[in-house]
Amino acid sequence: MGQTPLVALQRIGAEANRARGNVLLAKLEGNNPAGSVKDRPALAMIRRAEERGEIAPGDTLIEATSGNTGIALAMAAAIRGFRMVLIMPEDLSIERAQTMKAFGAELILTPKSGGMEYARDLAEKMQREGKGRVLDQFANPDNPRIHYETTGPELWQQTAGRITHFVSAMGTTGTITGVGRYLKERNPAVRIVGAQPSEGSRIPGIRKWPPEYLPKIYDPAQVDELVYVSQADAEQMCRRLAAEEGIFAGISAAGACWVAQQIAATVEHATIAFVVCDRGDRYLSTGVFPA
């Protein structure tokens, strides 16, 4: 897990980027064992809760998820010997649900109208009723900590300290908070940029939370700028990454790439890295890719 490749875009925006002296780099987190950036915090949250004596193999774990964390937790629970119950809005892709079940997790689907907020509330209710332990990726400091300990150092080393901008989709905000803190400690001038959905857009893995549901792990001091991306732009970039770069990525990763391209159009001699959160095969049933 970790030490994922960092690859340069070769074609998308290449002419303009060469003229400006910019390099755009994609961190391929889909290369992790369960296929996403969420593998890092999932295993870290379970291992460290075990180390603190909060959980033990055989216990039931509960988590609300939009997909990738659920898949990663299902894998980690299978490795460590836990029963895993995942709560997910019913409108998310069937590939994600099938993968969770393949790892042995039990799945509870919640109404589309309630979104992730309803799923999170249900997880907390089940914990209060004694049905299991919620790891809570949205408030668990082990989430950003693992990115501070692994993802951030990898980006710094892979760019030989030349990174000037880091772009990440914002869901739980664990990645951007942990990586942002690490990179800012190494060079306060590094710009940390969050990709968020524009009004009316529904992009799996990218969220704009209501204030009462804002993840407790989020540290706005680590984020210099928020850039909004539309669902249409993210989906178009998703197809372009596959067809033009050979990077089969998910929609949130494509949203981060779109934001990285917008930044590249305004700067010179920059090294801009963005996170490819997962792989495109988790989105085939959504229709984003041509049949």
From TrEMBL:
Pathway: Amino-acid biosynthesis; L-cysteine biosynthesis; L-cysteine from L-serine: step 2/2. Residues 2-278 form the Tryptophan synthase beta chain-like PALP domain. Pyridoxal 5'-phosphate binds at N68, G171, T172, T173, G174, T175, S252. The modification N6-(pyridoxal phosphate)lysine is found at K38. InterPro entries: Cys_synth, Cys_Synth/Cystath_Beta-Synth, CysM, P-phosphate_BS, TrpB-like_PALP, TrpB-like_PALP_sf. Pfam families: PALP (PF00291). It comes from Serpentinimonas maccroryi. It catalyses: O-acetyl-L-serine + hydrogen sulfide = L-cysteine + acetate. Keywords: Amino-acid biosynthesis, Cysteine biosynthesis, Pyridoxal phosphate, Transferase. Belongs to the cysteine synthase/cystathionine beta-synthase family. GO terms for biological process: cysteine biosynthetic process from serine. Its EC number is 2.5.1.47. Its cofactor is pyridoxal 5'-phosphate. Gene3D superfamilies: 3.40.50.1100. This is Cysteine synthase. The keyword Aminoacyl-tRNA synthetase does not apply.
